[in-house]
């Protein structure tokens, strides 16, 4: 009798176990696979743009109002602040490029803003531009003024004596030869352009400075480079520092005291208080690059540090 009772308890326990373990009845699936219930669990989330940005290439400050300035982002357009950086507004969202190389204000009219598109760097993550733009209303509207094949515009300078005279340093395409490459000059406020300093199909102009006492005196740095998927050819015999004393009509290559090996990218700066003093930061082979200084208008250079 006890044996039968034990078997009965085991049988009832098994029935209870399977009853509890039985899955709940599934809800009836909607007949229409595109019904709202199908997508009710999905929510939108931001997935981009996943671009390499973070590089600020250029800043232009209104000389009449230091709280008003413009920021050029490598992969983020142009931004403007009117309250010394407390807030910024994007002002270049509807144009042909989000990659910016430089932003410059007309020294005679800070409402005239010039933008060179295409950042002046050589990483694989670099994006290209579609030429040079001008705004006559502080960035509210823009007009493309050519050099669309430059792809990377490094510097724009305006002659302080004549706002119709513009210089644009174009580095040129990164992944191929040719294009609008070199230093360009306009005498009609950007309507037409003329190449005034060219080297070869792989060498563009990467930087440009005026003599602060005489804008007819200019220094330009050329930069030879070509990007491939597997490497960057960063430098060559085309890289150099050039000087003009006649507004860009003729040029002389500076050599004394500078590296005699192949150079790469060169950055330039001229003293605002002593126009005899020119600085250059130079990439060069064989670890011969560094910071160089000339105290005689570029005639002779001296290495100051690595």
State the main characteristics.
mainly beta; 306 residues; four-stranded antiparallel beta sheet; globular; five-stranded antiparallel beta sheet; single chain
Describe the structure.
By secondary structure, the protein is mainly beta. Helices cover 7% and strands 39% of the residues. It contains 1 helix and 21 strands. The strands form 5 sheets. Strands 13, 14, 15, 16 and 17 form a 5-stranded antiparallel beta sheet that branches. It has a 4-stranded antiparallel beta sheet with strand order 1-2-3-4, with no helix packed on it.
Total of DSSP H or I helical runs spanning 4+ residues: 1
Poorly predicted regions: none
Q: Pairing-aware structural class of the strands and helices? A: mainly beta
* Overall mean confidence score, pLDDT: 91
Q: Helicity level, as a percent range?
A: under 10%
What's the N-to-C terminus distance?
101 Å
Strand content: 35-45%
Q: Describe the global form.
A: globular
Biggest sheet character: 5 strands, antiparallel
In angstroms, what is the radius of gyration?
Answer: 31 Å
Strand element count: 21
**What kind of oligomer do you see?**
single chain
Order of helices and strands: HEEEEEEEEEEEEEEEEEEEEE
